[in-house]
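Dear support,

I submitted the protein below through the web form. The confirmation email said the job was done, but the results page showed an empty box. After a refresh the structure appeared. I'm attaching both so you can tell me whether what I see now is the final result or a partial one.
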Amino acid sequence: MLSNGVTSIHDVDSLESFSILKELHKEYLLKMRVYTANPLHQREKALRNKSLHPKWYKKGLLKGFVDGSLGFHTAAFKNPYSDKPTDKGIFIHSIKSLNDNALQAASKDLQVTVHAIGDHANGALLDMYQDLINKLGQKDSRYRVEHAQHLDKSDIQRFKELNIIASMQPYHAIDDGRWAEALIAPERIKTTYAFNSLLKAGTKLAFGSDWPVAPASPILGIYAATTRRTLDDQNLDGWVPDEKITVEQAMIAYTKNAAFSSFDEQIKGTLEVGKLADFVILNKNIFKIALHEIKEVSVIATYIGGVKMYESELKN
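What the results page shows now:
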């Protein structure tokens, strides 16, 4: 992670490794900051064993799942898959069970984030968040949708209206772009990985990697979000080019907004006096080079709290 310029992670802790973070910190071996997410139904675990060092490791996030993935035809869509007309995907958990768990979690001020890929899954999840807001009020809950990959056009504005954070992973766009259109056809592709449309609607984007499913590199993510050039180099102007965003917008999503998405904007996410000195030195200025060159940029050094935690053997 450090060699990729990652200073903080949001980690789904289904293996209950939070105690190991405590030991690593105690032995001065914890070299990056961790926000642990317990499974949504395990809210009591998120309430227990709170960290005494929340700048380094903390709990408070719960993660659930609506549907599966596009590649396995388990992402839930309103209409059938183009290559499999009898299949619309699946709901891994019912919205009612998710709603029941999310309501109990949010009522205890735990943060909720839920995986949704298909347009049906995303629409149903937004309905669930609307229900939570109706019952609990418009608090500073910072509900998140993990992935938000394929959206119905009518749902894009709802992210802003409900103050939902779109927690997305740009690398998937240049990976899926090689084959996704065969599964869901050209019309639905227009609002897939809709970075630009969500930003225009006023939605807060928070970017991550989805590692180990995708590379841990924010640099590759910025390249993906700004160029949308698929991995097979068949879309040189970008796959769904209208959804490309600027380097600055992508950078904000990986830093300032990512910190906001974990209630950490007061201590990190931007380089300011009084905040944690977490920063990365790159071998090139990504704001000045050609966009297609960004993927070749490398990390020279990564600092956590002003301390050098990683240094590349290649200085140039």
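Response: this is the final, complete result; the empty box was a page-load delay. The two ends are 20 Å apart (CA to CA).
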